[in-house]
Amino acid sequence: MSDDPRHRDAGDERLSTYLSGEMSPEDAARFEDDLAADPRLRAQLDVLADALVVLHGADDVAEPDGLDQRLHERLAQERAQDAPGAVDAGTTAAGTVTDLDDHRRCRSPPTRSSSGSAAAVMGANALSGMGGMGASGVSAEGGDDAAVDMAQESAVQEDTAEAGAAFADGPVIVQDGARVRSEAALARRYDGLPEVAAVLGTPVTDAGEVADRYRAEVGGTAAAQSQARAGAGTDDGGELSGDSPVVSAAPEPDFARCLDTVSEGADEPLVVARVETLHYRQTPAIAYVLVTASPGAAALDRTEVWVVAAADCRTLVFQQS
Amino acid sequence: MAAFVAGDQPAFDELVQRYRRRVFGICLQYFGDPTDAEDATQETFVLLLRRAGTYRGASAFSTWLYRVAINACNDMARKRARRPVAAVGDQLDRLGDVAAVTDQLAGRELGVELEAALDNLEAPYREVVVLHDVAGWPHADIAQHLGVAVGTVKSRLHRGRARLAVSLAHLREPQRPSTPPTVQP
Quick check: A302 and A320 in contact, CB under 8 A? Predict the structure, then answer.
């Protein structure tokens, strides 16, 4: 913190914005550098957090009956899902369980959909995004995510580097109904995607146009899907590569409708970098990977992952980094 | 703490036991609804479980936990804001004016120092801090109540809190930033 006496008297407003989660990841990282260098600032931060706990009356509330047990069960579930061999396993239509991590590594880079091209959409394969995407807004303490499977991350970085050129412009749309069983697996799946990297850093002044264009591609995809279904009787499995799980029994997802739902109320431009069908914990779902800007940021600097139920666009998971 | 950062389950379980009620209280103050508060509490500890290794000791653990909890609440609120939710707009009627809310402070075990620091805040800052941090009013409701912009409310809140921090800093002796706990490979 500055030694300016005015700051000492009035305090540093960053203390509050930091605790409130209103700081961009970059600003938070800079603030944490200041904390490390300024014991007085750190003391102010810690005492403010303590004061807020008291002001909130947080230590005085009565817990709901059974919270302990429900929390215990939830954490046990998370641990079980993230245990080796339990994460992100894929189930083919024939019921064979495969390791999707290996499965994805063997695939070609996914084909980006071009506007109105149903064939390109139906033929798209999943790109593995491994590594630890920051989940659910915890940019705390520098934003690094130590819970990363480094071996998987390394393998996927090779994939993404190879695939990067294919994602120069426009959303990636994938329909292979991959099975995902935990939020941690989702975070790994969507970390480090080249289509996301392609739009991060876009100035906010330009992002609206990019967002509209990408959204139009998603809308065009929906229209093309309808035409394909009406004209050809639709055998999507024929367009999928041989090693992809087939979701022939699932109803066609309405990408555009659910995109409207997850975009509703957003103040900043939202660029939809990726749309993908999933089976999330047995529920047919659509995942949207959106790139947007933190409040006040000059450029797109944040990623959101929304997983919604394909049937009614109900939100199942929301993550951001 | 090093055991927690290293992913030691008993250490994590102990933290859950120790801080569960506080996290629920933070989330309850944020949402005003026990169901939402419990959901956010669960999310907070799931995040802690996943991100134990990211705690670097830049602040006290309790500070870090507060921030993780608030971020979990922000995420939930963000989700709700984009979807139709039941109206919660009758808080103003229930809570009345600032004076009535301030009375609630008397019933809480505030430290003498904190009460004094709050009393010493200039009125515009104290008003917003009390409405938001004690009564749990959303920024928008405070703005409507006071007839000012939401941005003004946020600005007053951040400035008021910053002044509180300065007033109370002597309660915590400045400490050297702790060395990041060593994580076992």
Answer: yes
**Is residue B172 pLDDT above 80, yes or no?**
no
Distance from CA of B93 to the nearest CA of A (A): 20
3-state secondary structure B78-132: HHHHCCCCCCCCCHHHHHCCHHHHHHHHHCCCCCHHHHHHHHHCCHHHHHHHHHH
Cβ-Cβ contacts under 8 Å, A56 against chain B: 25-26, 29, 133-134, 136
Average pLDDT, chain A: 66
Please report which confidence band the pLDDT of residue B160 belongs to, taking 50, 70 and 90 as the band edges. Answer: very high
Percent of chain B, pLDDT > 70? Answer: 76
Say if CB B44 and CB B64 are below 8 A apart. no
| A·B CB contacts under 8 A | 249
How much is the pTM? Answer: 0.52
Task: Kindly provide the ipTM of the predicted complex, given to two decimals.
Answer: 0.82
**What is the edge-to-edge ordering of all strands in the sheet holding A283-292?**
A172-180, A271-280, A283-292, A302-309, A315-320
Q: Do B108 and A9 touch (CB under 8 A)?
A: no
Beta strands A302-309 and A283-292: pairing type? Answer: antiparallel
* Average pLDDT over every residue of B111-129: 86
What phi, psi does A249 have (nearest 5°)?
-80, -15
Q: How far apart are CA A167 and CA A104, in angstroms?
A: 17
Could you give the CA distance from residue B89 to residue B87 in angstroms, rounded to a whole number? 6
